[in-house]
Specification:
Layout: E1 8-13, H1 17-32, E2 36-42, H2 47-53, H3 56-61, E3 68-70, H4 84-91, E4 97-100, H5 107-116, E5 120-124, H6 131-144, E6 148-151, H7 158-168, E7 174-185, H8 193-196, H9 204-220, E8 224-235, E9 241-252, E10 257-266, E11 275-284, E12 287-293, E13 301-303, E14 315-317, E15 324-327, E16 333-336, H10 338-357, H11 362-379, H12 390-403, E17 409-412, E18 418-421
Parallel strand pairs: 1-2, 1-4, 2-3, 4-5, 5-6, 7-10
Antiparallel strand pairs: 7-11, 8-9, 8-17, 9-10, 11-12, 13-14, 15-16, 17-18
Helix pairs in contact: 1-10, 5-6, 7-9, 9-12, 10-11
Length: 423
């Protein structure tokens, strides 16, 4: 039986930087394409929602489109609504789309609440900070036939897709030694990061280094078996202390090593929006192979008459690959890049699951949804709890390590995967 694709209502929980820079524009464009229906953005207070509504670039790109603000924009900007997302979930129709874009330490609670209210979920990375939590969420979602995607968007970078295929074909040999870096702009320190990016909650390795840990696993299939992370502390403008820099080493099951440096300190006046890249050396028969991604520089240079504000300098390496708004054949603009592709893939998967099970008896629909979810897990392109849980083991190990000033923490697999400090 054929059923037309029905749009899924989208509830975005979190109104901060990633919602502004990627998620809301992507949801708007998917609304044009019939993937998303009504869009609601829920935040702790109305202040970030007002900023979203007043964003001139988004308004010009998506004329006539709007989101429902929760709390209402008429509420005072300093009045907080910590449980509002729960009320919205309780009132939502089943099996719609919830996008979780809150600080790392709140992911588990929001994702779990969404699943308990029978909602499909897309969560920004990392999914959760403990492996046991990702196992719990994977089980809960599969029991209810709900899709959970994790927004590791580098999996959708065409460079990564090429490398994954060619690595599988043996064109590089076996990964042996590598380094990755992701240094985010200094201006992050003046954002809401200073309220939650504290030493006891997270660090740059966990927050952005996880992208490259996931990417190496995505390309090679090699599991990490040990992690050591050291941090450099500093103070945010509001006086709170956080790890502003981190240096990590990851040992893989074949003995390979990956060094990862991360931070919140790329100069705002520098040419790129951040500094990021990956270099992997591989061993082959009587020769070596190499994968190098210089990700902050994608071959486009602009020099502007005026600087572009935070993170924008007169002379700029303008990467077109992650996310940009570009003209399209209809009014406004459209988002392009692997960031958009990643968001779209998860939301389109949710819609496909609902379309292919529409009209089936409840028991048959549940079985079919589970089958489709397992297919996505096995495909391995969209990150899910089933195919990316090594990241939670690495994150858990990294937090133990950085709080112990770099002690090695082992990752043990088998029947009960877990982490433990090296004796």
């Amino acid at each position: 039986m054929n059923h037309s694709n029905q749009p899924l209502d989208a509830l975005i929980v979190g109104g901060g930087m990633i919602t502004n820079d990627l998620i809301l524009p992507s949801a708007y464009h998917l609304q044009r394409l019939g993937v998303t229906g009504q869009i609601t953005v829920c935040a702790l207070n109305s202040a970030p929602l007002k900023a979203l509504q007043e964003n001139l670039e988004i308004r010009e790109a998506f004329p006539g489109q709007a989101f429902t603000a929760q709390p209402a924009l008429t509420e005072p900007g300093d009045k907080q609504f910590p449980d509002l997302f729960k009320q919205l979930l309780a009132a939502a129709r089943p099996r719609q789309a919830v996008i979780v874009a809150v600080p790392d330490q709140f992911h588990y609670g929001v994702v779990r609440e969404a699943l308990l209210h029978d909602q499909h979920v897309l969560c920004v990375k990392p999914l959760v900070l403990q492996y046991a939590q990702t196992v719990e969420l994977e089980k809960l979602a599969l029991e209810r036939g709900l899709f959970v995607g994790v927004e590791y968007h580098k999996r959708f970078d065409r460079r990564a897709l090429m490398a994954r295929r060619q690595y599988a074909l043996g064109h590089f040999g076996e990964f042996a030694m590598g380094e990755a870096r992701m240094i985010e702009p200094y201006y992050y320190r003046h954002s809401n990061f200073q309220n939650w990016f504290t030493c006891d909650k997270t660090d740059p390795f966990v927050y952005v280094g996880c992208h490259y840990v996931d990417l190496v696993y995505f390309i090679t299939g090699l599991k990490p078996v040990a992690v050591s992370v050291s941090g450099v502390k500093g103070r945010f403008p509001n006086g709170k202390e956080g790890y502003l820099w981190a240096n990590g080493r990851v040992r893989y099951e074949n003995g390979a090593l990956l060094s990862v440096i991360d931070g919140l300190g790329y100069p705002d006046a520098a040419a790129a929006s951040n500094d990021q890249g990956l270099l992997m050396y591989c061993e082959g028969p009587d020769r070596t192979g190499m994968i190098e991604h210089d990700d902050q520089y994608r071959g486009v240079k602009h020099c502007y008459l005026k600087g572009l504000g935070c993170g924008g300098s007169h002379y700029n390496y303008v990467s077109p690959d992650f996310y940009r708004l570009v003209p399209w054949e209809r009014p406004g603009s459209k988002p392009v890049g692997y960031g958009y592709d990643s968001v779209a893939a998860s939301l389109e998967t949710m819609q496909r699951i609902e379309t292919e099970t529409a009209g089936l008896a409840a028991a048959d629909a549940l079985l079919k949804r589970r089958e489709l979810i397992r297919q996505v897990d096995a495909n391995g392109l969209i990150a899910t709890p089933a195919n990316s849980s090594i990241n939670e083991l690495v994150v858990e190990a990294a937090r133990l390590s950085i709080l112990a000033d770099g002690d090695w923490v082992n990752i043990l697999y088998g029947d009960n995967p877990h982490v433990e400090k090296r004796s």
